[in-house]
Amino acid sequence: MDPSRANAPWLEPGRPGYEAWYVTVSQPSARRGFWFRYTRFQPRRGLEGEPHSALWAFSFHRDDPALNTAAKDVHPLSALRVARRPFEVSLGEGELRLDGCRGRAGDTSWDLSWVPVGGSALFPFLRPPWDGLSMVGNLGAQLRLRVSGSVRAGGREYTLAGEPGGQQHTYGVSHAFRWNWGYASGDWGWVDGATSRVPSRLGRVLAGTALGASVEGEEFRLDTPWRVLMEPGEISPDAWRADLGRVRLAILPRRADLIGVTYEDPTVGRRICYHTEVADLELTVGERTIRREAAAAFEYASTEPLPGLPPRL
């Protein structure tokens, strides 16, 4: 699988579901991060809510969370267009390609380009053909990038020069009921994965952990059904932890850095997702341990908001 195939459109016309292509960028020297999403949503017939597409933009500031920003611009569903080869998503003033992205949402604008580091690093949360068992999919399409360009958010201009980042693609008939997700990359390598409670085509809720990592050339991938389901894991707004013996991971956010957003579900209800790009990372693969402060992405999501922390969108 190459990045174009990992980003190939999944949501068919008239079919209930959601789809998102997203970019995460960390700026560790400034203890800052960014998150951009290009999405479309098609509810089941009879549910409230209109089909639509949207551009989302977020900034995170570890040293001053009062500077955090969140913006979403909604467009008609038909406004989002996807080309397969070369891959490109276009929506309003937004565009996402394999070598960069740009866009505008609210008063936030961005214009970024990137180059892959060490070849194409990809990670499917369920390895094909097993990915068809789940009603939710996630593909880490470009997991180790050096990102450059500019972002304007909250009336401030930020310049990026070779910062670590990644680009991913997620989709599904229905969102997972609950999840923790985490991602980080840098000169040391990358880590990506999630612990989730996912509706399946078998009529059961699947509990499991998918995890991929590469540290200084040593790789680990937990993405086959029997291995994923053997690690149900815990889900928490305060940490995502996975202790798999040879691989141990902790991504640790602060509550003050979380931004909550509402995801309507194509089938029923909603999910409240809390996201940050400035969580702390502790990752061990074999004899190698990586620790980075304010350099990891983290999510916690459930059907209800956290007490005292209402969603901003």
Question: How would you describe this protein?
Answer:
With 313 residues, the chain is an all-beta fold. It has one domain (15-302). The chain has 2 helices and 21 strands. The protein has helices at 3-6, 225-229, and strands at 17-27, 32-42, 52-61, 69-76, 81-83, 88-91, 94-97, 100-105, 108-116, 123-124, 136-153, 156-172, 178-186, 189-199, 205-215, 218-222, 240-243, 247-252, 259-264, 270-285, 288-302. Strands 1, 2, 3, 4, 5, 6, 7, 8, 9, 10, 11 and 12 form a 12-stranded antiparallel beta sheet that branches. Strand 7 and strand 8 (100-105) form a beta hairpin. The model has no long low-confidence stretch (mean pLDDT 93).
SS-derived structural category? mainly beta
**Count of the separate structural domains:** 1
Q: What percent of the residues sit in helical stretches (DSSP H or I)? A: under 10%
Sum up the overall morphology in one term. Answer: globular
Helix and strand pattern:
HEEEEEEEEEEEEEEEEHEEEEE
Radius of gyration, rounded?
18 Å
Largest β sheet strand count, sense and barrel closure: 12 strands, antiparallel
Distance between the termini: 34 Å
